[in-house]
């Protein structure tokens, strides 16, 4: 059997089954080892240095010990450190986005997904460029600036040319003061050449969920279609990085396999990217299996309760402090509220998971990918975030200023976030409030912005942010950024 090697480009060597099993064994044996748990917690704590706040992160073994630990005071401490870490690197900003489903044609047989090829009763749709235009206008009219495009895998109906043309269409639309400034892409694993084309098309993050790191389960859960190939899927991020995309987003679909196995695999994947490419994942998503057409989530017997879900999120926050974490509208308002504190830095709002759903007056269910638990409008989500002390941010500055990959990580580590991300968040929130918000949301928002402007340490940056905000309020000038 191959040895564990985080630097290897072979899936079975960097996601190494025996290493994961040993890790789980080690975690189980040490979950009440107070000295070790304390040592790991100390390592995880953010620390101030002359160069700013730093976090060492944790190895998959260390993080797995914390995940297994069931001593109530220590679990509380995990949560406390997760909150501290979140505040140290992300502050109280929450980045907003929406998914845009382009097509649900799919040739795969994924057992948990309603788009699976043998589902004959789901309505199949592929948006034309004109339909994409209309969807994007509807999204812009809500106030969205950042999208994640989603499509089933169908090399004939949804070839890369279709995806590229759709990205071009999305970027070309400016309705009123609207614009989509960052398109993230969640499409099936593809070739280096296609990743290069996506990079040239100006995408933000390439997102691909592993679904499960457990190879045998993966093969069973993906019985047919190109996605059946575990190695090709698991090695996709390396091809994406070879194609020039340096912001990649990992994810596990929780519920399919035992969560501790998935957690160790996920952190090992992050370690692998860091070891090979010098930069870890830009984001990690934490979807849980949901009910959908033809899909009964109870069939999968590894579902996790909210409490465990929160602990997973806190432990991810400690293990990879510089990686953004995303939670979608699969989760309820209550779960989102708790996980935002513990480390989530990006959320979707007002999502419709059906193809063409944004232009329908009522939420359509016929082509939906999963049931949406949080069905609030974007205005309601923005207002709720602010009432809970968060700053909803529509910022897309980093990748447009070339701060991707390790350059983004250095910004994160340099402590310049308050002089850069903070004003960007406040300026884009002002755009949202002026152009799209209800009167009530405006009131809360402008008061919050006034208070938060005073927290920008650099005087010049603060003055400039104030000027730009006044400009946004008094003119149609938009898209200021640091
Ligand atoms: N087709 C692409 C691929 O193969 O990766 C990705 C697009 S798919 C629209 C996005 C993600 O939705 C999948 O990777 C999967 O994790 C998630 N998903 C599928 N079925 C789901 C369900 N029933 N509940 C929750 N999430 C689901």
State the gist of this model.
The protein is α/β, with parallel strands linked by helices and 482 residues long. It has 20 helices and 11 strands.
Nearest-integer average pLDDT: 95
Largest beta-sheet details:
9 strands, parallel
| Helicity range | 40-55%
What's the total number of strands? Answer: 11
Helix/strand-derived class? alpha/beta
Please specify the SSE layout and strand pairing.
Blueprint: H1 11-14, H2 17-30, H3 34-44, E1 47-49, E2 52-54, H4 60-68, H5 72-90, E3 93-103, H6 129-142, E4 146-151, H7 160-172, E5 182-186, H8 192-200, E6 206-207, H9 215-221, H10 230-234, H11 236-242, E7 248-251, H12 259-277, E8 283-285, H13 306-319, E9 324-327, H14 333-342, E10 346-348, H15 378-387, E11 391-393, H16 397-400, H17 405-414, H18 417-436, H19 439-453, H20 459-474
Parallel strand pairs: 3-4, 3-10, 3-11, 4-5, 6-7, 7-8, 8-9, 9-10
Antiparallel strand pairs: 1-2
Helix pairs in contact: 2-4, 2-12, 3-5, 4-12, 4-13, 5-13, 6-7, 13-14, 15-19, 18-19, 18-20
Bound molecules: S-adenosylmethionine.
Search tags:
alpha/beta, 11 strands, binds S-adenosylmethionine
Notes on the protein architecture:
With 482 residues, the protein is of the alpha/beta class. It has 20 helices and 11 strands. Strands 3, 4, 5, 6, 7, 8, 9, 10 and 11 form a 9-stranded parallel beta sheet that branches. Strand 3, helix 6 and strand 4 form a beta-alpha-beta unit. Helix 18 runs antiparallel to helix 19 and helix 18 runs parallel beside helix 20. It starts with 10 loop residues before the first helix and ends in an 8-residue tail after the last helix. The chain binds S-adenosylmethionine (SAM).
